[in-house]
Amino acid sequence: MSGHGEAQPMISEKSGPLKGTALIPGDKSISHRALIFGAMAVGQTSITGLLEGQDVLDTASAMRAFGATVTRHGEGVWTVNGVGVGGFQEPADVIDCGNSGTGVRLIMGTMATTPISATFTGDASLRKRPMGRVTDPLSLFGTQAFGRKGGRLPMTVVGAANPVPVRYALPVASAQVKSAILLAGLNAPGETVVIEKEPTRDHSERMLLGFGAQLHVEKTGEGHVITLTGRPELRPQTVAVPRDPSSAAFPVCAALIVEGSDVLVPGVSQNLTRNGLYITLVEMDADIAFENPREEGGEPVADLRVRFSGNMKGIEVPPERAPSMIDEYPILSIVASFANGKTVMRGVKELRVKESDRIDAMARGLEACGVKIEEDEDTLIVHGMGAGGMPGGATAKTHLDHRIAMSFLIAGMAAKKPVGVDDASPIVTSFPIFEGLMNGLGAKLRHG
Ligand code: S3P
């Protein structure tokens, strides 16, 4: 559980060329789901490549508290002995999801249609985030939720004793909300339907099919209509978790902005619901070769060969691309600072309810580093200063947000003066080997 310990300041100094191969840990979204779906299957699910970041470890603890047997056998190698759909027991204590919005929202959905109660909490960041987006649709199943003002944690969720299936059109593009409803629908009789206007990451749908649920997706004028038949018996699976494209973004973007760099990042997902950043970088004239395309762990992947790109140009990022790169705007805004001209990011207000208000955190930190920013509720505009142009020489506030911390540490590798962060401790939530991996490529990250 992050955010409960002491702040760990970190500094990043201008680095020489980054060289080598960056082996990225497992995908965070898929790791949470492998544990949760494993807990809902009857029998033993085997997982390899599980991300052992704090967010995922908190979900593993939660699955144990609901009655599943979750065992670690070695690095990334885990098994889950599930209790079956509807088989969750009432946890004896509060469920602490640490920093993880995905963890808490998916787990709330999973227990929402079983007649048990559970009280959820998290760190100071998670306790600020809105849960109504999940508990509103869950109430349609008959679930009740009692939280703090504004639908904040701590919150007690009382599962529906006689759940009814629901039909729900998502008001926000959110894979967390979509997944919470599908997980709740598993233990409701009949068909639960979720409609999403813009496609968001589809790992839950893929995994539900893999575990033997009956699910179909239809593309209609309304968007994607996802229909799930309730009360299946889920069959245990062997899940090979692919590498996390959202974590890969950090060494990829570092190589683009640090002069002379040439880095190979193997096995980066090209899943269309996750690869928006990579499309955007190519449009900015980044030098990225997509080598050896293949399938790994059920995901299309490629090896990315990334070279320093001293002549990138600012672009207008199409707002409809936001769901496929929602976690990558912080690091994109760093790359944009080293491009020529302005990069316009519209339709990004969801960034305000992530681990931190990411528009505000990036805007304030970049301004402190000497970059001109424009922003409104739904927009971030970065005025690029060209390769090596960012003055730096500032310390950014990370607000318990791992992606803000990593983004500014990457900026320091190419800025004129070092860039620090007030607290790098949240990085363990998603990318526990970040410091060692980046320093192994040639970065100069140090504590202090
Ligand atoms: C996630 C969905 C996204 C993303 C988060 C992981 C998931 O959140 O930001 O890091 O695993 O479903 P939203 O669904 O709220 O956009």
From TrEMBL:
<dbReference type="GO" id="GO:0008652">
    <property type="term" value="P:amino acid biosynthetic process"/>
</dbReference>
<comment type="similarity">
    <text>Belongs to the EPSP synthase family.</text>
</comment>
<comment type="subunit">
    <text>Monomer.</text>
</comment>
<dbReference type="GO" id="GO:0003866">
    <property type="term" value="F:3-phosphoshikimate 1-carboxyvinyltransferase activity"/>
</dbReference>
<feature type="binding site">
    <location>
        <position position="358"/>
    </location>
    <ligand>
        <name>phosphoenolpyruvate</name>
    </ligand>
</feature>
<protein>
    <recommendedName>
        <fullName>3-phosphoshikimate 1-carboxyvinyltransferase</fullName>
        <ecNumber>2.5.1.19</ecNumber>
    </recommendedName>
</protein>
<comment type="function">
    <text>Catalyzes the transfer of the enolpyruvyl moiety of phosphoenolpyruvate (PEP) to the 5-hydroxyl of shikimate-3-phosphate (S3P) to produce enolpyruvyl shikimate-3-phosphate and inorganic phosphate.</text>
</comment>
<dbReference type="InterPro" id="IPR013792">
    <property type="entry name" value="RNA3'P_cycl/enolpyr_Trfase_a/b"/>
</dbReference>
<feature type="binding site">
    <location>
        <position position="28"/>
    </location>
    <ligand>
        <name>3-phosphoshikimate</name>
    </ligand>
</feature>
<dbReference type="GO" id="GO:0009423">
    <property type="term" value="P:chorismate biosynthetic process"/>
</dbReference>
<feature type="domain" description="Enolpyruvate transferase">
    <location>
        <begin position="14"/>
        <end position="436"/>
    </location>
</feature>
<dbReference type="InterPro" id="IPR001986">
    <property type="entry name" value="Enolpyruvate_Tfrase_dom"/>
</dbReference>
<keyword id="KW-0028">Amino-acid biosynthesis</keyword>
<feature type="binding site">
    <location>
        <position position="129"/>
    </location>
    <ligand>
        <name>phosphoenolpyruvate</name>
    </ligand>
</feature>
<dbReference type="Pfam" id="PF00275">
    <property type="entry name" value="EPSP_synthase"/>
</dbReference>
<keyword id="KW-0963">Cytoplasm</keyword>
<dbReference type="InterPro" id="IPR023193">
    <property type="entry name" value="EPSP_synthase_CS"/>
</dbReference>
<dbReference type="InterPro" id="IPR036968">
    <property type="entry name" value="Enolpyruvate_Tfrase_sf"/>
</dbReference>
<dbReference type="GO" id="GO:0005737">
    <property type="term" value="C:cytoplasm"/>
</dbReference>
<feature type="binding site">
    <location>
        <position position="33"/>
    </location>
    <ligand>
        <name>3-phosphoshikimate</name>
    </ligand>
</feature>
<feature type="binding site">
    <location>
        <position position="354"/>
    </location>
    <ligand>
        <name>3-phosphoshikimate</name>
    </ligand>
</feature>
<feature type="binding site">
    <location>
        <position position="327"/>
    </location>
    <ligand>
        <name>3-phosphoshikimate</name>
    </ligand>
</feature>
<feature type="binding site">
    <location>
        <position position="101"/>
    </location>
    <ligand>
        <name>phosphoenolpyruvate</name>
    </ligand>
</feature>
<feature type="binding site">
    <location>
        <position position="403"/>
    </location>
    <ligand>
        <name>phosphoenolpyruvate</name>
    </ligand>
</feature>
<keyword id="KW-0808">Transferase</keyword>
<keyword id="KW-0057">Aromatic amino acid biosynthesis</keyword>
<feature type="binding site">
    <location>
        <position position="28"/>
    </location>
    <ligand>
        <name>phosphoenolpyruvate</name>
    </ligand>
</feature>
<feature type="binding site">
    <location>
        <position position="29"/>
    </location>
    <ligand>
        <name>3-phosphoshikimate</name>
    </ligand>
</feature>
<dbReference type="InterPro" id="IPR006264">
    <property type="entry name" value="EPSP_synthase"/>
</dbReference>
<dbReference type="GO" id="GO:0009073">
    <property type="term" value="P:aromatic amino acid family biosynthetic process"/>
</dbReference>
<feature type="binding site">
    <location>
        <position position="176"/>
    </location>
    <ligand>
        <name>3-phosphoshikimate</name>
    </ligand>
</feature>
<feature type="binding site">
    <location>
        <position position="176"/>
    </location>
    <ligand>
        <name>phosphoenolpyruvate</name>
    </ligand>
</feature>
<feature type="binding site">
    <location>
        <position position="174"/>
    </location>
    <ligand>
        <name>3-phosphoshikimate</name>
    </ligand>
</feature>
<comment type="pathway">
    <text>Metabolic intermediate biosynthesis; chorismate biosynthesis; chorismate from D-erythrose 4-phosphate and phosphoenolpyruvate: step 6/7.</text>
</comment>
<feature type="active site" description="Proton acceptor">
    <location>
        <position position="327"/>
    </location>
</feature>
